[in-house]
Amino acid sequence: MRALVTVAVAAAIISVSSAWGFANAAVGSAIPNQEMPALDGTRHLLLTNATANVFVFFRPEQEHSRATLEQVARCAKEMAGKSVYWVAIVSDRYAKDKVEVEIKETGLAIPVLIDEGDALYGQLGVALCPVTGITDRDHKLAAYVPFTKVNFPVILQAHVRRVLGEISDKELAEAVDPSTAAPGGDGEAARRQFKLAEKLRQAGNNEKALDSARKSIEKDPSAAAPHILIGQILAGQGNRPEALKEFEQALKLEPTNTNALAGAKALRDNPGAAPPSAR
């Protein structure tokens, strides 16, 4: 039987500055299982008899928590074929109707559990908001992932896949920090090529700028910035279809990148408009 992966999304109620995800649960420690009431009136276990269990603490009506829910929803859809079980947990301090609106708007189609009296929050000693914890088959904490605007879905899925045994420690490290990858993850060389591309574009040498930006991507395929630069140059040259592809690729790498969002939106909303001039 294929193992299930439990992903629990829980609501933190205070803002704490800390280098650790959970003050009372270090990596390697066991996370206690428990049955909890759900938003829809049913009851669910926090963890299942699964290869991996993942739980995310979030706060309703908080920018980073909302982004976390949206991207967790995306991960749930993308990993649906991997027998992944997702649940959400929210503090009972929040009004039920507000939580329901938040869940609906973020597209999170998973059970939402209620943390009565913030018992789970206190038991784990949540030190970051939002934060995702991942356990192994024995419910021992394998990793925790704080929200990041760069590559959060990639990092989250990499940790889940590592617990599932789908990738190695080396592949996990490369997903979390692409600069460690070789040969395609030469981060320093990629940055140098990108800086050169920016300077060439500023000097008006767009063709050489495109060449340097593409070399940067070869060095570090996980970087969104070179795709954005290429998209801007191509749009300025009138090649709108290819420019849109570059912006869309950048968004796959960094879903919340404002420059990529703006570039893609401009090309989608005004397909017949004159393209912006390249610098």
How do the helices and strands line up, and which of them pair or pack?
Layout: E1 5-10, E2 35-37, E3 43-45, E4 52-57, H1 63-78, E5 84-91, H2 96-106, E6 112-115, H3 119-124, E7 131-135, E8 141-146, H4 152-164, H5 169-176, H6 187-202, H7 206-219, H8 225-236, H9 240-253, H10 258-269
Parallel strand pairs: 1-4, 1-5, 5-6
Antiparallel strand pairs: 2-3, 4-7, 7-8
Top-tier CATH class of the largest domain: Alpha Beta
Residue stretches low in confidence (pLDDT < 50, at least 5 long) are 12-19, 181-185, 274-279
- What would you call the shape? elongated
The CATH superfamily of the largest domain appears as: Glutaredoxin
Distance between the termini: 57 Å
Overall pLDDT level: 83
In terms of DSSP E residues, the strand content is 5-15%
Radius of gyration: 21 Å
Report the structural category: alpha/beta
The CATH topology of the largest domain is given as Glutaredoxin
Gross CATH architecture of the largest domain: 3-Layer(aba) Sandwich
- How many separate domains make up the residues? 2
How do the strands of the widest beta sheet line up side by side?
Answer: 6-5-1-4-7-8
SSE succession:
EEEEHEHEHEEHHHHHHH
Task: Profile the largest sheet.
Answer: 6 strands, mixed
Can you count the beta strands? 8
Helix content: 40-55%
Put simply, the count of helices is: 10
